[in-house]
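To whoever picks this up:

The nightly regression suite flagged RING-type E3 ubiquitin transferase as changed. Nothing in the input moved, so I suspect the structure step. Input below, exactly as stored in the fixture:
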Amino acid sequence: MPMPMPLPAPYDHHHQGHHHANWTAGRYHYGPMIPPPATPYIEHQKAVTIRNDVNLKKESLRVERDSENPGKFLVAFTFDATVAGSITIIFFAKEGENCKLTPTKESILPPVIVHFEQGLGQNFIQPSGTGIAFSMFEEAELLQDVDVYPLAIKADACPANLTDADGEPVPGSTNSQITQAVFDKDKGEYKVKVLKQILWVNGMRYELQEIYGIGNSVESDFDGNDPGKECVICLSEPRDTTVLPCRHMCMCSGCAKVLRFQTNRCPICRQPVERLLEIKVNNGNEEESN
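Regenerated output under the current build:
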């Protein structure tokens, strides 16, 4: 059985530079030191402001019984509009190129178009007689959310200065918000469950995402006495940076710039961080993107 070789002394003038040993925590390591794994690079971006002229408040979206047509239900919701436009209700809609929605059961449920004027907090309810009779469809059809959405609502905003002589929108000028939903059965009653909200602006499609923690920042000016508004790391600066993809708005931009070189985990949920998104919301000024 071979005898183990004795370890060299931690510092030897006669052999220095020949055995290449490194002294670390009382142990010898031959060869070069292995550096710790590098923290993955995390991209830090600033948010781009996109004008949204009409917004359907998704928490208000519901169906109500049509009192004049037993067995039928009407789509209802609240919305804000800074310009005039139109709302289109489409049942069993398939989304195609350029956010075009095609009704797949148009023969029995044609799309319903209702025009609206500028105004905040407007209440919408589908015209009586145009609603959906759930009994006509299989439950699986009403719950499906692949390719065809049981309910889609397209809100088109059309500023007056972008209409032609007949009052029709100039092609490519209309910005839209699309809400895609399914019907979810709860205690025997069908309710609306929103899956996606999409903005179609200047030929670009944006899918809207909730940001957790942004409500504290936008409700009023930053107040250092409110524990819900400050950065979770420095506990002094207001939150303005969101972690993606988990969407926690929990840091100030200064701490975020330091964090991205130290860890790739969200301070709130510990999920891996792919990007950091800086959103200036407190002063009301639009933030220019780099």
